[in-house]
Amino acid sequence: MISCILKTQSKILYTFLLALVVSFGAFAQEASEQAEIAQKGVTPGATEGAEVSTGDPAVISAGEALFKNNCAVCHSAGGDVIVGPGLQGVTDKRSESWLISWIKNSQALIQSGDADAVAVYNEYNKQAMPSFAFSDDEVKSILAYIESGQGVVSAPSEGVPGATAGENVGTDAIGAVGGYLDIVLVVLIIVLIVLVVTLLLIASLMKNYLNQNRKLNEYDAEIVNQRFDFSKIYKSKAVRTLVVLIFVVVLLDLTIDKVMGVGIQQGYAPKQPIAFSHKLHAGEHQINCNYCHTTVYESKSASIPSANICMNCHSQIKTESAEIQKIYRAIERNEPIQWVRIHNLPDLAYFNHSQHTQVGGVECQTCHGPIEEMDVVYQYSPLTMGWCIDCHRETPLNTEGNGYYDNLVELHEASSKGAFTVSSNGGTECSKCHY
Ligand code: HEC
Ligand code: HEC
Ligand code: HEC
Ligand code: HEC
Ligand code: HEC
Ligand code: HEC
User: Fold this and answer.
1) Rounded to an integer, what distance in angstroms lies between the CA atom of residue 52 and that of residue 209?
2) How far is the CA of 319 from the centre of ligand 1 (A)?
3) Cβ(345)–Cβ(381) below 8 Å
4) How far apart are CA 43 and CA 41, in angstroms?
5) Based on CB atoms within 10 Å of each CB, which residue in 104, 141, 194, 387 is the most buried?
6) Contacts of 345 (CB under 8 A, 6+ apart)
7) Which of 240, 232, 242, 237 has the alpha carbon at shortest distance from 191?
8) pTM
9) What is the phi-psi region of residue 119: left when phi exceeds 0, alpha when psi lies from -120 to 50, beta otherwise?
């Protein structure tokens, strides 16, 4: 009977172990699903699209481009007030001719004494909206876009779909897996400790009970009172499996941490002095990158905005927020905000933004990743020499309509079959990137 109890005891042990392995499997599965989501940058349920439009799609998309480049800084196409009012429904509220005169020159309309114009001007603290030299058709296309409802921001969804993550963006996913492995590890250890303590408790209770209340024959007494035998534990299959399992998990965890470190500063995402979010500003409110990074199309450096640029909007918006108060304090003290620099090439390398953004037409996202989805900016690309050179070898140069290149392209075509890339033009010569 006693040996039967002991057998049940070891059965319990095996059941526990089985449960442990199964739950570990489930954890790993969840972790890999998370990783996949992070990699694709897609959250389930983030697919709610815009309303179906009634107007001509070509006109609407032309209007969308004009709106984003000229108006989105101050207006949303939905109901939110940014600097000016949200423009959803404005086409029902005002006549087309009124809107055309307003957008072309709001000050003229106000001065003419138009009641609506004066009222809205006063309502928004007499901030002058700039004039726009648009044709009537251009204004109409903007109005068609507003009317279509396509610019209405639906409930903020995680991970704006659209920007496809490149091969380099693994850091998020790896981070997620690393985090899960840590949790799995801790859970494993806790379960193990609980298991051991419970079993020891049961064993000692049973031993006491049997010794006190039963007359034991010699054989049973030997089993009950046997000394703790470490060699048995060592030989136990269950314990060995468990040890191997824990070893594998620890090893995996360490390797992943190492792999993350390989990309030098890749994935670097320091905490900033103000909780500024690109997802909110560049994503939801669609403020153009060069509204803040003012020199990115004209000079070597992209520039980080001064507090004055923030004040264009935050003299009015969220003035009571603790984060915004930090901007006011910086201005009062006449000190710049101490943003922590993320991207930083060594001094020996020369990189020029305008060369890439303006001349080369390379999108910010190609090098910086989906910034408009980041609450906290992280370094997306490795920024190594190999990374620069790979792109120069693969990217065809836009030589169309540029007389300067005609002879060079001809020469290139005579000697090689490949496309005329940045490197064909000398983009892999040491002196181009090194002083
Ligand atoms: C620099 C900020 C700014 C920009 C850029 C801007 N607006 Fe405005 N807009 C305002 C402000 C502020 C008001 C409120 C009236 C006022 O104070 O002049 C306004 C009012 C309006 C109104 C009147 C709304 C109503 O309820 O009657 C319309 C329509 C409008 N803007 C359209 C546009 C369009 C279209 C563009 C882009 C071509 C644009 N705005 C660009 C700041 C701006
Ligand atoms: C409203 C202003 C604003 C807009 C719009 C904006 N940024 Fe920024 N950006 C900042 C500020 C402030 C920082 C410094 C704080 C930080 O890193 O979050 C910054 C930092 C960055 C950095 C990291 C700089 C470093 O230290 O290495 C990159 C890259 C960047 N922005 C790219 C973009 C891109 C691409 C867009 C457009 C999709 C954009 N930004 C739009 C204000 C802005
Ligand atoms: C073109 C307008 C505009 C500019 C320029 C701008 N912001 Fe904003 N900012 C907004 C809007 C709109 C919101 C969202 C307000 C809301 O949620 O109601 C916002 C929100 C914020 C918030 C969140 C506040 C909170 O407590 O919810 C912070 C922090 C912030 N901005 C910082 C900055 C900083 C720093 C700069 C300058 C680098 C800047 N903003 C420039 C329009 C702007
Ligand atoms: C071809 C790749 C590439 C493209 C395209 C690119 N950047 Fe950069 N960006 C870099 C590199 C490399 C650095 C680091 C420069 C350094 O340390 O000197 C950087 C740095 C920055 C910084 C930090 C400040 C600075 O100037 O060093 C900001 C802000 C920034 N980029 C914004 C942008 C914006 C906005 C765009 C799009 C309009 C853009 N970048 C397009 C590669 C790129
Ligand atoms: C995503 C692709 C891409 C990456 C990454 C990239 N470049 Fe470029 N680069 C270009 C293109 C495209 C041009 C050609 C622009 C033009 O002249 O039309 C260019 C041109 C240049 C030039 C001028 C070459 C010449 O012949 O005059 C220099 C210098 C340069 N890049 C440096 C760098 C450095 C340094 C890095 C890495 C920190 C880098 N680039 C990363 C695409 C890239
Ligand atoms: C397209 C731009 C580009 C070209 C062309 C280029 N380099 Fe570099 N190089 C870089 C960048 C960016 C770095 C810094 C990145 C890093 O530290 O990994 C760098 C770093 C280096 C370093 C320092 C490595 C270290 O570990 O600090 C040396 C040495 C070097 N390059 C030599 C050369 C030589 C020699 C050539 C010509 C055969 C060349 N480079 C061509 C962009 C370039």
Assistant:
1) 77
2) 21
3) no
4) 7
5) 141
6) 351, 383
7) 242
8) 0.61
9) alpha
What residues pair up with 349 in beta bridges, in sequence order?
434
SS3 349: strand
Domain extent listing, the chain? 2-43+167-262, 57-148
Kindly give the number of the ligand 2 atom that is closest to the alpha carbon of 365: 35
Ligand 4 pocket (Cβ < 6 Å) reads 289, 293, 296, 301-302, 304, 343-345, 351, 353, 356-357, 362, 364, 366-368, 383
Instruction: Give SS3 for 3.
Output: helix
Measured between alpha carbons, how far is 44 from 49 in angstroms, rounded to an integer?
Answer: 13
- Which of 160, 155, 143, 163 is CA-nearest to residue 53? 143
Which residue among 68, 120, 129 has the greatest number of ligand 1 atoms within 8 angstroms of its CB, and so is best to mutate? 129
CA distance 171 to 267: 6
- Helix, strand, coil percent content, the chain, rounded in steps of 5: 60, 0, 40
Q: How far is CA 288 from CA 81, 174, 358, 434, in A?
A: 18, 30, 15, 31
For the structural domain made of 57-148, what CATH number should be given? 1.10.760.10
Q: What's 373's DSSP letter?
A: G
Structure token pair of residue 50 = 């815009």
> Distance between the two ends of the chain, CA-based, in angstroms?
86
Which amino acid, one-letter code, is at 247?
Answer: F
